Amino acid sequence: MMDRQVLRQLQQAVGKDNVIMDREELVLYSYDATPEMPPACPLAAVLPQSAAQVAAVVNICRVNRLAVFPRGSGTNLSGGTVPLGGGVVLATLRMDRILELDPDNLAATVQPGVIIQRLNDAAAPYGLIYPPDPGTVATATMGGSVAECSGGLRGLKYGVTRDYVTGLEVVLADGSVARFGGKTVKNVTAYDMVRLFTGAEGTLGVITEITVRLVPAPQDRRSMLASFTQLAAAGEAVAAIIRARIIPATMEILDRTTIEAVENYAHAGLPRDAAAVLLVEVDGLTEVVRHDAAVVERILQESGGRLKLAADDRERDALWAARRAALPALARLRPTTVLEDATVPRSRIVEMLAAIQDIAVRHNLLIGTFGHAGDGNLHPTILTDEGDHEEMARVHLAVKEIFATALAMGGTLSGEHGIGLAKRRFLPLELGDAGVAAVRRIKRALDPDNLFNPGKILPEEE
Predict the structure, then answer these.
(1) Residue that is last in its domain, among 362, 390, 408
(2) Is residue 61's pLDDT more than 80?
(3) What confidence tens digit (pLDDT) does each residue in 197-247 have?
(4) Relative to the CA of 402, which of 23, 109, 264, 360 has its CA 20 to 30 Å away?
């Protein structure tokens, strides 16, 4: 009876066409892109079109003690949008308007359902770009990207999502609507609430409007691929490029397992005999690009790399298509793909790559590793079958070792995927008991009834 009453209230708040109740359709909202997450079917999925409708939905759920699970496209890799224990999925896909493109202030204001690539397409005629570039840039929403503080291929030079978010409108747990930040270059008023909600994974409020900083598009760019017969040589090349004070826009690494998978999948022309390949792109003013590219080419060759330069945009696009094919190529090898994002200081990236390979051998697992070599963000991808319980036990041991190794090297549990449901049990390993307690106090202060995305980030209390 209560469920029917709540559903009627939700329909009145956002319209019947914006409330999904059919059990078959709700299956689509019961999981995200994270492997080995138990699906959980919500009571309903609601697709509001304004902040006022979001606030109405939050108030209905608060009064009826139903959890709210904010969701964009569901491309996250941390189990962050799985609706544990039912409740209501609040999907922002229909809040998809670019509200303002302001080239004079190098800014844009969007609703959370705007696809990242669409914002870049809109900014392009003004000679501007929005730099954050996650692998799912063509499908991921701005709201989901901000909630996860996603990174991407351009993180080395341009930074991650939090470096570009300057203002937010957020619906809070009491149903009120708050605004923080704006277009100004400088803003040190009170606590940095914009940074707090960026990367909060939907656990503190629902983002309904986002203002971001745009930057001028680079005048020129040059891409290259270097293949290495030894993993250590690739790592030394990365270190040498940074020591030369060259900061490429992108510097990606693929190990032998990933190279083989990409070649079998996409026939991209990667050298199958390589232990690793580096994909590097420098961008900026033409004179600077010419200088930086020459330095990078020299370093790659001196480090033992066989060099292939992209002669034109077609060849450049082919190189980066090979990199973006890494995950789908690996995913074809086994039924289940466990993709992690352990991150270490970039000076220790080769050490971390070697450790991952050792972990794979010791646990008799197939692990392909690729990632952002320039910023130390690696994606060890364990290829397995979640139906094989004995193998999955080894997978869990390997994941724990990967994180412990990264932390021992001064790294972190997550460079860009977030904690969500998948990594919450590991949080004390990085933050310690005092750190976890501090995060828990912030959650309780802003969301005392545990309304928003319960069960995510924080480990379960004993």
Answers:
(1) 408
(2) yes
(3) 999 999 999 999 999 999 999 999 999 999 999 988 998 999 999 999 999
(4) 264
Sign of the alpha-carbon dihedral angle for 91, 93, 94, 99: positive
Whether residue 337 is contained in a domain is answered as: yes
Q: Which residues pair with 210 in a beta bridge?
A: 110, 168
Residue 433 and residue 427: Cα distance in Å, rounded? 9
Give the bridge partners for 178, in sequence order.
170
DSSP 8-state assignment for residue 375: G
pLDDT at residue 39 in the model: 86
> Which string of DSSP letters, residue by residue, matches 170-203?
EE-TTS-EEEEE-S-S----SS-HHHHHTTSTTS
* Site of tokens 């949080």: 427
Look at the block and give the residue holding tokens 């933050």.
Answer: 431
For 262-279, write each residue's pLDDT tens digit. 999 999 899 999 999 999
Q: How far lies 305's CA from each of 156, 261, 357, in Å?
A: 21, 21, 21
Cα 86 from Cα 66, distance rounded (Å) = 8
**Is the pLDDT score of 2 beyond 70?**
no
Residue 421: pLDDT band (50, 70, 90) is very high
Short-list 186, 194, 301, 286, CA closest to 241: 301
We report the CATH number of the domain holding residue 335 as 3.30.70.2740
The CATH number of residue 49's host domain is 3.30.43.10
- Give 202-220 as a DSSP string: TSS-EEEEEEEE-EEPPSE
Cα(278)–Cα(14) distance, integer angstroms = 49
Amino acid at 403: F
Round to whole Å and give the CA distance between 213 and 160.
Answer: 12
Residue 451 has pLDDT above 80, yes or no: yes
Q: Kindly state whether residues 193 and 151 are assigned to the same domain.
A: yes
**Per-residue pLDDT at 461:** 84
Note down the domain range covering 50.
2-91
User: In whole numbers, what is the pLDDT of the chain averaged over residues?
Assistant: 96
β-pairing, 128-129 with 215-216? Answer: antiparallel
Q: What is the CATH number of the domain that holds 136?
A: 3.30.465.10
Question: Order of strands, edge to edge, in the sheet holding 107-110?
Answer: 98-102, 107-110, 206-213, 165-171, 177-181
pLDDT at 42: 96
- Per residue in 99-119, pLDDT (tens digit) is 999 999 999 999 999 999 999
Residues 120 and 50 in one domain: no
Q: What kind and span of H or E run contains 371?
A: strand 366-372
Question: Whole-angstrom Cα distance, residue 168 to residue 111?
Answer: 10
- Pick the closest to residue 17 from 70, 82, 94 (CA basis): 94
Query: Beta 88-91 vs 68-71: how paired, if at all?
Result: parallel
